[in-house]
Write a structure and sequence with these properties.
The chain is built from eleven helices and 14 strands. By secondary structure, the protein is of the alpha/beta class. It binds phosphoenolpyruvate and manganese (II) ion. Phosphoenolpyruvate (PEP) binds next to loops. The site of manganese (II) ion has 5 residues, from loops.
């Protein structure tokens, strides 16, 4: 349920209602908007009486949240959420660009990548230190050594670091080095991992599972929000369909749809979404045209010899050209790029 407070409700009124809600065994999420404050009362609300909450001090009305996801819903918070992590700002008209190699391979590789993507206008650096690979025989990442290399690149460029965490027990370690914790497509429904990242103060990039519906993506985000972490970015990275010419099928309607359902920012990954370098630049621009709040792209100094995902990685030059095109599209639509 949403407890909508009156415009002139005092902080004492809000605090009182939070206690009433918690007394009913529900969790209270206070959302302070420019117009009004609302309190989302979430949990099993069968025992909560709409009428008795409605009679509380400073309460304007109590309305049910119809969507299956609650805190993520636009019903609870009408204004778009901006996620900030160091140099990265995503949402509410500001487009963030996260770029870098699929995997951290060496200090030289990540340093060169970070300098090149920054020069072209990227606002955060990506690079996997823990890689979730389809085959156990593929390169699994440099783990903590890779995290240290990312931290070195951040020191050199001041770019925020976005890196994946694949297991809940690794969250404290990865959070020590990362500005943004990436939850990969394969882990979208790893609920213990979602709770663990929800318990940190790091922003989270949550990638859509290749077979997950949009409601399932939003319910996965809800786990992170419910744990108390409001800084969640959703990422459309392509889904599995009958089509085999692209690695995944990248549905850009997701961006428009999500903006109609949630206040959370939406990032698009045209690299994994297509699986081919030549498809990335135009799909990146198309994502910006669809209203994406951010892009995440794979960029490598030598894609041909990359240890993972070289076939979908941009060279430094291709990335700079892609950025120039995306900037034009973003600016034409009035976004800050
Ligand atoms: C990645 O970003 O390198 C990655 C593994 O992506 P996804 O989880 O979308 O497959
Ligand atoms: Mn990859």
């Amino acid at each position: 349920m949403i407890v909508v407070m009156k415009k002139n409700a005092s902080t004492g009124d809000v605090e009182h209602m939070v206690q009433r809600i918690e007394g009913l065994g529900l969790k209270a999420h206070v959302i302070v908007g420019t117009e009004r404050t609302v309190i989302a009362a979430v949990g099993d609300d069968r025992r909560a009486h709409k009428g008795s909450l409605e009679s509380g001090p400073g309460v304007a009305e109590v309305v049910p949240i119809l969507a299956p996801y609650k805190v993520a819903s636009l019903e609870v918070k009408h204004e778009p959420t901006t996620v900030r992590a160091g140099s990265l700002t995503v949402g509410a008209g500001t487009i963030g660009v996260i770029a870098g190699p699929c995997a951290v391979e060496s200090e030289a590789q990540i340093l060169a990548s970070s300098r090149a993507v920054k020069a072209a206008g990227a606002t955060a650096l990506r690079g996997g230190a823990f890689k979730p690979r389809t085959s156990p025989y593929s390169f699994q990442g440099l783990k903590e050594d890779g995290l240290k290399m990312l931290a070195t690149a951040r020191d050199a460029t001041e770019l925020a670091v976005v890196t994946e965490v694949v297991a809940s027990e690794d969250v404290p370690l990865v959070a020590r080095y990362a500005d943004v914790l990436q939850v990969g497509a394969r882990n979208m429904q790893n609920y213990r991992l979602l709770e663990a990242v929800g318990n940190t103060d790091r922003a989270v990039l949550l990638k859509r599972g290749p077979s997950a519906t949009i409601d399932e993506l939003l319910l996965a985000a809800e786990y992170i929000l419910d744990a108390g972490n409001p800084n969640v970015m959703l990422c459309e990275r392509g889904i599995r369909t009958f089509e085999t010419h692209t690695r995944f099928t990248l549905p850009l309607a997701t961006v428009v749809y999500l903006h109609a359902k949630t206040h959370l920012p939406v990032v698009v990954d045209p690299s994994h979404g297509t699986g081919h370098t030549y498809l990335v630049p135009r799909m990146a621009a198309a994502a910006v045209a669809a209203g994406a709040d951010g892009l995440i792209m794979e960029v490598h100094p030598d894609p041909e010899n990359a240890m993972s995902d070289g076939y979908q990685s941009l060279t430094f030059e291709q990335f700079a050209e892609t950025m120039a095109t995306c900037r034009k599209v973003g600016q034409a639509l009035g976004s800050k790029f």
